[in-house]
Structure formats: C-alpha cells, structure tokens
Amino acid sequence: MTKAKLFVCIISHEKRIEDVLEALLDAGISRASIMDVRGMLEYLADEIPLFAGFRSLIEDNSKTNKMIISVVENDEQVRMAFDVIEEVYGSFQETNSGIMFSLDIADIRGLKL
Amino acid sequence: MSPKQLLILFIVLSYTGVVLIYRRKKISLLGGMEYLLVGLLFSLVSVDQALLKPLLYAFIGWIGLLTGMQMKVEYVSRLDRSFYGRVFVYTLVFFCLVFAFLSIVVAPVTALYMAIGLLPVSYLVVARYCKENRYVLFFASIMPFVAVAYLFFVTVFQSDGYTLSFFFLIIACFAIIARFIITNIDDKRSIELILIGLIILISESCAVLNCSALLVTFAVGMYLANFCPLDDVVFIALYKDEKPLYSIFLLLVGMLAGMQASFTFFLQGMAVVVFVAGLKYVLFKIPFFNMPPHYHRYMQAPGGFAVTIGVDSWLNQGVGLQTGWFSLFLFIVLMLQFISVFISRSYE
Amino acid sequence: MNKLFRLFLNALNIVLITLVYRLVIGASFFNDQFVFISPYLTLGFLITAAYIAGSIARHFGLPSLTGYLLAGLLFGPHLLGLIPQQDIQALELINALALSFIAITAGGELRLASLKNNFRSIISITLSHTLLIFNGIALLFFCVLYYTPLLALPDTVAVLSFSLLLGVIALANSPSTTIAVITECKSKGDFTDIVLSVTMLKDTIVLVLFSVIIAFISGMYTGSTISLPLLFEIMRHLVVSVVAGFVMGVLLILFFKYIDRNISIFVIIASYLAHEFAHVVGLEHLLMCLIAGFTVQNLSRQGPRMIEAIENSHLPIYVVFFSIAGAGLNFNYSQASVIMVLLFVGARTLIVFGSTYAGAAYADAPAKIKKHSWTAYIANAGLALSMLIIIDETFDGWGAVFKSIMLSVIAVNQIIGPILFKFGLGKTGEARKL
C-alpha cells in the first residue's frame, strides 16, 4: 500500500470548473484528469423544452457535471485540496453542489511521487 | 381583484407550477396545460379584460421570437429533403381534412384558423414517451414552423397589396432595428433587458397596427438567428425562463378567453375532438410517414404552440371570426391533450 | 469596434426607436383599443430608449442612471412630450415595486462588521449633517424670505414654515440613486459602507423630523402645541416597521434555504408584496425593506445568494424606475424660481461639503472620506418627492409654489448628484468597474 491517495471531486456547477482547477494549481496539484459525468436525477428527469424543441434536438448538449481525479502524495495533500476547493467553490454541505472523497492507492505505475 | 394583484398571483402560481407540473416522474394529465384550466376558472371572477389583453401580445411576441430564432439556415439544411417532403404531405392532408370537417361545425373562416391551430404537436408529450426515436422528435418539433408557414400564407392571401407591403415593411423595420440595437450592446448581461424592451415594443406596435405579433416576431427572430452575431446569447436569454413564463401565459389566456357552458358548445367540441383523434389514428397507419402506427397516441396532443396560434388568430382576426370560437378551440385543445396523455399513460 | 462609432450607433438607435414609436402612435388613430395598449407600448419604448441612453451616458463616464433620467426627461411630458402623462401614472406600479427592491438591496449591502468598524464616522457625519444642514438652510432661507419680497409669502408663520420645510428637504437624500451608482460601479469598502449607512440613517431621521415639523406647523396654525401622543405615534410607527422588516427578512431567508428557484423573480415579487402589505397596514415600507435586506445579509448565510439574485434582475427595474422618475422631473422657469433654485442648490452643496468634512474630521475618518464623501449626499429625490406631495396637499396657497420650486431643485440635484457621486467614488478607488 502506498501513501498516495486518489483524490476525487465532483462538482455540479460546471461553470466553476476553471476556478476550481486554478485553485488546485495554486495549491501545488498540477496533474489531474477531468471528466464529464451526468447525475442520476438528470438522467432520469430530462428537462424537456416547450418551444425550443427543434434547436435543442439539433444541438443536443445536455448539462453535465465535472469530475476531477488526481493522484496526490498523502493525506495532508488531500485535506489541503479539500480546503482549497471549498474556499473557491463554496461549501459542499449544500445539497446538489457536489462531493469530494479520497481513496487509498495500493500500487502505482507511471507516476513519480 | 385589481389587475396588479392578479398579475402577482399569476407569478406566484407559476412558481408552484414549475415544481408541481413539470418536475414529476409521470407527465401531468393535461400535458402541462393545467394553468389554462385554472385561468378559465379565474375568468369567472370579473376581470378588466381590456387592461390585460395587451399583455398577451407581449407573450406572443416572446414565443414568436423564441421560435423564429430556431430557424437558422444551417440547422434547417441539416435535415434531408425526404423528411421535409413527408412533413409537408402529412400536414397538407391533415389540414385539408380538418378544415373540411370544421367547416361543417363552425364558419369557414373560423375553420381555417382553427385548422391551422390544430396542426402543431406537443413536443413535451412526444419527448416524454419517444425519447429514443429522433425521427418522431424532429417531426413533432418542426410542426410549429409549418403552422407558422400556413398562417403566413393565409395572411398573404387575405391581404391586399397595400396591407401586405405595409406588413413586410414593419417586419423589415423591426428586424433591422432589433439587430442594430442588440449587436451594439456593450454589456452582454444586459441582453435580457434590451430583449424585454424590444419584445414589448414590437408586440405592442403590432397590437396598435393590427398585425399578427406572432408572424412579425417570428420573422424578426429568423432574421436575428441568421444575421446577428449575438444570436446564441439572445436565444439563451429567451429560453431560460420558458416554463414560468409559459405558465403565466396560459393563465392569462384562460382568464381572457372565458368559459362557455352550453350543450351545443360541448357537442361541437367533442365532434371535432373525435374527428381529429380518429384522423391522426388513420394517418399514422400509412407507412409513408415513417412512424410506428401506435405513435398516434403520443402525437394527439396539440401542445403550447397550438394555443399560441389560437391566441394570435384571436387577437388579430377576432372580429372576423365567430364569437366564442376561441373558447371552443381551447376546449378542443385541452381534450386532445387529456386524451393523448391518458392513453399514453395507460400503456406505460 | 471603435468607441466613437459605437456612440454614433447608439445615438442613431435612439433616433430610430423614437421614430418608430412616434409613427406607431401616429397610426394609433385607427385603433380604438389604443388607450389600453398605450402604457405597454410606452414601457417597451422607455426600456429600450432609456437603456441606450444609459449606454451613451456610460460612454462619457457618467453613471448610466443619468442616461435613464435624461431619457425620461427628454421624452417625458414636460420636454418633447412623446410620452403622455397618463402612461407615466400607469407605470407608477413599477416604481413602487422598484423602490422596495432598491431598499432591500440597500439593506443587503450593509454588513454588520463594517458598520461596527465605522460606527464613529457614521454617527458623527449624520449628526453633523442633521445639525448643520437643517439649521443652516432653514436659517438662510428664513432670512432671505423674511427680508426680501422674493416669494411674497403671506405672513411670518408661512415664512417660518417654508424655511423649516426647506431645511428638512435639504437633509433628504436619495437612497435609490446612491445604491444604483454603487451597484453599477461595483464598489466595496469603508467609503461605500459609510455613505450607505449615513444615507439610510438620514432618511430615517428625515422621516421623523418631517412628521414632527408638520405637526409643529399645523400646531402653529391652529394655536396648539405638539402633543406627546403624536411623538409616541411616530416612534411606534417606526418600531413596527422595523419589526415587520425583520419578519420579512426571516421569510426571505427561509425561502432561499428551502425553495431556492428562480430567485431573481422571487425577490421582485417579495418587493411587491412588501409594498402592498405596507400600504395596507400603514407601515413605512422603505424602512421595512431595508431591515429585511439587512436581516438576510447579516443574520444568515443567504446574503450572497440574495445579492446575486438582485444583481441579475436589477437592471430592468433601475432602467424603468429612473426613466419614469426622469419623466416626472419638471423645471419651473419663473425668475423667482430660478433664483431660489440656484440659491438652494448652491448653499446646500456648500453646507453638505462643510458638514461632511467637519463630521468626518471629528471622527478621525480617513482623508478620502473627508474629502470626497460629500458627493454622495447631493442627490435629493425619493423621500423628498413624497414629502412634496404631502406639503402641496396640506398647505394651500404657498404649498403649490413650494412644490414647483422644489421639483426644479430636485431635478437639478438628480442630474448633478449621481455624476458627482460617481466621480467621488472613482477618486476613492473603491469602485471596481467605472
């Protein structure tokens, strides 16, 4: 078991993704992957437009949440990342704003820690 | 109740509506048109009609602009010609048959506008049940534009040269000025404000000049979509508050239309409902239209745009059409919505 | 795009829109429903034209509300006469709503921490203003009106009443103007907070003072003196308004916490409901909304959300509010009026500067407050206008004269006030967007 942790953060206000990434960079975390994910509720209850049907069909971009994953060195870095993101994005206590957690990493290749 | 109190009541109600009607797992029984009913009930309270009627023009203007702005040449050219061909044949057949039948039930001129009004299909209902079938979705979503085209041609044929050139002049005037003003905004966040101002100005001008606000704003929207560099920003601003605005619109329509309670009224309405529902059932059996036959149950509901066309015809042509036709029309629309959702739900 | 070209286009746009509006009105001859359509048409025209005028004003470094005001003034019934008087009255509904909205905004901008920090300056400047402006103006005009035949007032009592009322109005400010400029320049800091707090505090004082003086003058005319119950009544009135404001604030907080949809529309509705409620119960609705906004900002964590909602929807409200206000502005051109107006504006401006400097100096406020905060206290509409209506109704004879002169004064102050204030804000460096 390495000391490294996988830091995962999912935010629902996807427009703030840049602020969050900049905050991470400032805190020293420069490697991360960002993915588009859709929430379960959004998948189940799609907002169907009333009058804008034609255009929404042609364009078809649905609202996505953003998930950031990053391998960090230790628990401290995780906590720092948590704090730094909360400063920029706001508290995660409010419903529907997002979630952050970390996972232990057993083995790792391709990254020098 | 004073008009301003009523207006505030409307807005508050529309709030609850957005939560209660649109956000449920199952589509609501009237397909989102509950407020039309509520408005009709409100009409029993004495209302200063003349004071609130001009507001309807503004709402029609908003819908017209929103719809017109979807007519971008690059979008339209993405769909292939066979699709347009099928749509054209379907609407022509449907329109002619409905018009023929309606002329028995109501006066011919009235039948004309009612037939156009019954052309659109509720995108809300179709999308809830046919999410996977993009062909049907496109079919349903293109109906409003076809209806507008029909309305446009009817207007052209009914007007003399003088009125017609005046009509085109107005459209050109407003379109160019609107584009000018919108393009010249220095702060993109104030686009909502300028849109409110322009929509009210254009719609109320149409009210004064006795033109169809729907057609004029539709044309302006089309122009803006294709020639204004800020068209995306404008579209998002228009589309953001669709549902609350639509709810208020329905409330207003219901209130100003008023209820009619007579047996002949009911009979006429039901006759039309049965005919239209039956016609759609038959038409969908024809494989030429490329749709599964059982989809007729989802395509019965006329939807919000049908109400829009009805309101526009009522505001614009009202004097020339027989009295009480608008209430009849609303009754038919509500019944069709109910039938569509009811049958669809029982197959779920 | 070249800035000058933009300016030209803006001017051209206004001309075009006005032409269209004029043509449509001309064609209205054929439409018998026009009298009902007219207010809506005017609203659409006003929003568009005033907004463009605001852009033009911004181009010259002036606050946009000056543009809105001038557009209203230009197109209003008193200058070009494009907008009929009945439409202005019909659109007053929006102004009532706007006022509540503005008061909530103002309350929301006051932060408790900042108030505590600047407590001395705020109190000091407020007291200094109250003493010096009220007494200064009242005394000055008592002398002028008593010893010169400028206005030909009937008797000493009338002269005294006139002067006292002039003093009270001189003290009044325009919270809406102050907030509008602050919002537009996105300014934050001690200067902003002090200016806002003093303006609000002064408005409350003006309210009380006005009631007392009206009672005193009525007493002079009827031979009785001010009664204690009357003072109690005024105090009770204020306290109930504050409590109602607190309750409204709590309701707003609950809304933001639990419902939280389409916030922008909701704040507008809340403002309107507050206005109607206050009307019905007879409260001071501006004070109520101010306290409500203050409660939300300082007693919960929903403050930023409310501010965000307000920032999203403030623009249409300000545009309509200030353009309609502008359409109501009037200039009286008689010779006596012109002299009075010049004297009043000039004297008041000087005394405002002096008393602000003195008050700030006494509280050891930083230099920027001493030197520049006077600019915030020049604008004069709002409460003053309501008071004028009451004066006109209460005192026949010189009431109408008073009102017409003061309307001109307010007009002048409303035009130069915001410009000066924006200038002053710029000098302090607290404005983040000029």
What does this structure look like?
The complex is a heterotrimer of chains A (113), B (348) and C (434). Chain A is an alpha+beta fold and 113 residues long. Chain A is 33% helix and 24% strand. Chain A has one domain (5-46, 54-104): Alpha-Beta Plaits. The longest helix of chain A is centred in the C-terminal third of the chain and has 15 residues, at 75-89. Chain A starts with a strand and ends in a 9-residue tail after the last strand. Chain B contains 16 helices and no strands. In chain B, helix 2 (34-42) runs parallel beside helix 13 and helix 14 crosses helix 16 (325-346). With 348 residues, chain B is mostly helical. Chain B has one domain (54-346). Chain C folds into 2 domains: 3-90; 97-428, Na+/H+ antiporter like fold (Up-down Bundle), CATH 1.20.1530. Chain C contains 18 helices and no strands. Chain C has helices at residues 3-27, 34-59, 64-75, 85-90, 92-109, 112-117, 119-147, 156-171, 175-185, 190-222, 228-258, 263-281, 285-298, 303-328, 335-362, 367-372, 383-394, 398-428. The radius of gyration of chain C is 22 Å and the shape is globular. Chains in contact: A-B, B-C. The interface between B and C is large, with 44 and 43 residues.
What secondary-structure arrangement, pairings included, does this model have?
The complex is a heterotrimer of chains A (113), B (348) and C (434).
Chain A: E1 5-11, H1 17-26, E2 33-37, H2 40-44, H3 53-59, E3 65-72, H4 75-89, E4 98-104
Antiparallel strand pairs in A: 1-3, 1-4, 2-3
Chain B: H1 3-20, H2 34-42, H3 49-68, H4 73-76, H5 81-105, H6 108-117, H7 123-129, H8 134-158, H9 161-183, H10 191-209, H11 213-227, H12 231-239, H13 242-257, H14 263-285, H15 304-317, H16 325-346
Helix pairs in contact in B: 1-13, 2-13, 3-10, 3-11, 3-13, 3-15, 5-6, 5-8, 5-14, 6-15, 9-10, 9-11, 10-11, 14-16, 15-16
Chain C: H1 3-27, H2 34-59, H3 64-75, H4 85-90, H5 92-109, H6 112-117, H7 119-147, H8 156-171, H9 175-185, H10 190-222, H11 228-258, H12 263-281, H13 285-298, H14 303-328, H15 335-362, H16 367-372, H17 383-394, H18 398-428
Helix pairs in contact in C: 1-2, 2-3, 2-14, 3-14, 3-18, 5-9, 5-12, 5-13, 5-14, 7-8, 7-10, 7-15, 8-10, 9-10, 9-18, 10-11, 11-12, 11-13, 12-13, 12-14, 15-18, 17-18
